[in-house]
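4.2 Preliminary Data

To establish feasibility before requesting continued support, the project team ran the inverse folding procedure on a target of 309 residues. The structure was first converted into the token representation described in Section 3, and no sequence information of any kind was made available to the design step. The complete token record follows.
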């Protein structure tokens, strides 16, 4: 497994993260198999959120399953996210919600601390001073070691940074070969003949590189928001053909090549896989051993439906 050090954050973490959003439907034995398989493949980083499964069911399942794995708490990096309150149809970064969310996550996960806490999606009514107070309390109580954000624009991060004293070391963002807006806007810049040039995120990719913020790419095999996977999907024939050719050359699966495409980017991102199938986890982790060439990277990007301006 390729390992990374996150600037101002956790060290020696796996480039591939096991996402737990799809864990709620598993039995605790199956969930333990997922955790164990990922760990045996070199994954030491697990991603959660208070909303996964509705009211934290993914965290509960992980908390029940972890003791069955034989792993120790310090063997793994456990991350959760807060602020997305589907139960009340709002996003909420108030101090009370951040503090109570972390307490709930710790109880459900059955751990004393989170390695990292991310603010999940922007609460556009957020008061940065309140976030700062909450982070101070959580840090002083030893409940959270490191802090970050998810789905945040650079200027929102700047606003937070004016008040929050802890480094914000992670921004979790959507990126796949099919959902590559993070990359497209820079390539097509100033081109009014294509929608690819629309800057939808305030140049988040370059901002994160500039400020040593590690990007964690979510839904790396999905098309659309949650449209399903493009792997083996007849709607993406060119992409599957290009993935298959490189998969055969490298002796891995098409999914592994799609993940290697993200890992090849010089921003040194982590990629969060969501599969709950142990065979797919093993296949996905082979991505960390594949280094695509500069030409391979562009060939896949073009096969995903882009063109060179
Ligand atoms: N910050 C955010 O806003 C945000 C949003 C969404 C997700 N996330 C995080 O990102 C993680 C990953 O998201 P995701 O689950 O959408 O990611 P994904 O890895 O792109 O998608 C996983 C899905 O693709 C399926 N799949 C089909 N063929 C596959 C193959 N050959 N190899 C692997 N998977 C295959 C999986 O099914 P099988 O289980 O049958 O393999 C699973 O249903 C989540 O768990 C969560 O931690 C964050």
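Position-by-position output of the design step:
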């Amino acid at each position: 497994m390729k390992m990374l050090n996150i600037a101002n954050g956790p060290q020696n973490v796996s480039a591939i993260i096991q996402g737990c959003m799809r864990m709620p439907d598993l039995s605790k034995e199956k969930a333990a198999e997922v955790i164990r398989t990922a760990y045996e493949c070199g994954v030491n980083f697990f991603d959660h959120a208070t909303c996964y499964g509705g009211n934290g069911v993914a965290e509960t399942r992980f908390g029940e399953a972890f003791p069955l794995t034989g792993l120790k708490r310090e063997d793994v990096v456990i991350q959760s996210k807060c602020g997305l309150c589907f139960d009340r149809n709002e996003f909420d970064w108030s101090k009370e919600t951040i503090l109570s969310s972390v307490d709930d996550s710790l109880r459900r996960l059955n751990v004393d601390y989170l390695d990292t806490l991310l603010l999940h999606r922007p609460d556009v009514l957020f008061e940065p001073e309140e976030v700062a107070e909450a982070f101070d309390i959580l840090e002083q109580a030893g409940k959270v070691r490191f802090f970050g954000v998810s789905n945040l624009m650079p200027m929102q991060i700047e606003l937070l940074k004016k008040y929050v004293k802890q480094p914000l070391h992670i921004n979790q963002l959507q990126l796949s070969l099919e959902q590559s807006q993070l990359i497209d806007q820079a390539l097509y810049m100033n081109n009014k003949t294509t929608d690819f040039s629309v800057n939808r995120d305030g140049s988040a990719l370059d901002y994160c590189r500039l400020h040593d913020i590690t990007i964690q790419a979510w839904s790396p095999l999905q098309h659309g928001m949650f449209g399903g996977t493009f792997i083996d999907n007849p709607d993406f024939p060119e992409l599957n053909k290009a993935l298959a050719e490189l998969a055969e050359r490298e002796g891995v699966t098409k999914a592994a090549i799609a993940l290697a495409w993200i890992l090849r980017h010089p921003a040194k991102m982590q990629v969060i896989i969501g599969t709950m199938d142990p065979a797919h986890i093993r296949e996905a982790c082979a991505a960390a051993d594949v280094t695509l060439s500069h030409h391979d990277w562009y060939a896949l990007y073009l096969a995903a439906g882009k063109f060179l301006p």
